[in-house]
Amino acid sequence: QQPVQSPQAVILREGEDAVINCSSSKALYSVHWYRQKHGEAPVFLMILLKGGEQKGHDKISASFNEKKQQSSLYLTASQLSYSGTYFCGTVPSGGSNYKLTFGKGTLLTVNP
Amino acid sequence: DTEVTQTPKHLVMGMTNKKSLKCEQHMGHRAMYWYKQKAKKPPELMFVYSYEKLSINESVPSRFSPECPNSSLLNLHLHALQPEDSALYLCASSQGADYTGELFFGEGSRLTVL
Lengths: 112, 114
Hints:
The structure holds two protein chains of two kinds. By secondary structure, chain A is an all-beta fold. In chain A, about 0% of the residues lie in helices and about 55% in strands. Chain A has strands at about 5, 10-15, 20-25, 30-35, 45-50, 55, 60-65, 70-75, 85-90, 100, 105-110. In chain A, strands 2, 4, 5, 9, 10 and 11 form a six-stranded mixed sheet that branches. A five-stranded antiparallel sheet of chain A has the order 1-3-8-7-6, with no helix packed on it. Chain A starts with a strand and ends with a strand. Chain B is mainly β. Chain B is about 0% helix and about 55% strand. In chain B, strands 2, 4, 5, 6, 9, 10 and 11 form a seven-stranded mixed sheet that branches. A four-stranded antiparallel sheet of chain B has the order 1-3-8-7, with no helix packed on it. The chains are: A mainly beta, B mainly beta. The interface of A and B includes residues 30, 32, 40, 47 and 105 of A.
């Protein structure tokens, strides 16, 4: 089941903040966030495991609300290097074969 | 070494050709993956190998045939492909296949089927 990401696209000026949301209709084991720049491989940002945790990585952080089956990625004081497509990936809980399914992505453009 | 290396970077093939994509990692990871990505779409899982055994096949057509000769290598054999199979094929690896760790992606093999 593909998670739903919003917004589909966002344009920022350098230094502005953004929030990208990811929601699932299924109970989740974990949420993953990746960034992919044009013509490059996806790059790992962070994983959140069930338990409702929040993580941070430089000026990028994320939260995971297990009860609501939602995660949000927070980008503060955006830099030009933050531009790219952000994918959340979800792994449903239950079952023996874990599968990571990516959302459709959020295209983030940071302008000077 | 935190790299996943894929070859070739670009491949053009006819519908009757047989070709292979290759993926290599030397991080000691025990799970390896093939993903397919179309332009402006997310990566879609094709196959998962865990400890050199095929653990997930996402109902991929038999014209795609994966092979894991050892824990460092992953191949994708291609035969009688269709033009709609043109895409970026991404290989990834991770410590285990339980998705508690990050996936390391290669830069991909861009396939064009004529």
